[in-house]
Amino acid sequence: MENAKGYPRNLTPWEKDLLMWLLPEDRPGYRPYRHRVERWQVVAQGRRGEGNFILAPLDERVDNESPLPQVLAVGVVETPRGGISVTIREHVANQVEFEIAKLGAGELGGAWEEIRRWTLSTWSPGAPCPICQTVLRQVRMTTVQGRVLVLVICSRDEKLWVHDGETGINHPIPHTNFYNELMLRKGIRDPQTALDSKRLFTDLRLHTDADLANAFRSYNQIRTKIPMEDRIVVLSDRRRSFFGRLAAILKRGLSQG
């Protein structure tokens, strides 16, 4: 039975189309979310106001008090009247929060013509930026057990995400917190540099792949984007490991000589 605010309700065809677009079927990590979109209903408005809703089973108690979950997927539909942003957040218990909002001034509603749409969800390693089609900075990382991750940075669009080769998910990363970790790992304390997170993009060439990988490893330990049981191994670790093994071989040779 609907309440006075019109909940629960089914997703509109337009809402469902946009959410399914952000959750490509060929990526195993997105499939559970596709299943939820297919089965659940809109049961309440989210705390962020108009355009922000919560999907859940009908008997689920809505939680609007816990901290906002991390963003799982993002995209934008471009129209002559401006952009429409679409966001899905990671599930918490039995609910998923999504938001469809107009970018800039004006209301979202009525008929509109679509110019194009882009999402990070469909990006694959080696491909150009899905937004501007330029070449991306891509840092390949592996874990001790061989899981492959790719840290991706677009300087033009000021976007940052990490691709998980195991799930196929492209996790958006807020650049400010990541940049803070990068500055800490590199020991940079000059306020003009350390506090200006936009310099991640303007000064990207100044940071090695090992710098960026170390920053992500630290970031992921504090603000987990990708849960994992083993440790990310970066280039500097491999070099230390190689020289460590070499030193051990030389030491054994000297002791036997």
One letter per element, helices H and strands E, the order comes to HHEEEEEEEEEEHHHHEH
Major beta-sheet overview? 6 strands, antiparallel
Helix/strand structural class:
alpha+beta
Given as residue ranges, the uncertain stretches (5+ residues, pLDDT < 50) are: 238-249
Strand order of the largest sheet: 1-2-5-4-3-6
Number of domains: 2
| Tally of strands | 11
Count of helical regions: 7
> Share of helix among residues?
25-40%
In round numbers, the mean pLDDT is 89
In terms of DSSP E residues, the strand content is 15-25%
* N- and C-termini, Cα separation: 86 Å
Gyration radius, rounded: 22 Å
Describe this structure in words.
The protein is an alpha+beta fold and 257 residues long. The chain folds into two domains: 13-119, no CATH class; 137-237, no CATH class. It has seven helices and eleven strands. A six-stranded antiparallel β-sheet has the order 1-2-5-4-3-6. The chain has a five-stranded antiparallel β-sheet with strand order 10-9-8-7-11. A hairpin with a 4-residue loop joins strand 8 and strand 9. The longest helix is centred in the C-terminal third of the chain and has 22 residues, at 235-256. The radius of gyration is 22 Å and the shape is globular. The model is unreliable at 238-249 (pLDDT under 50).
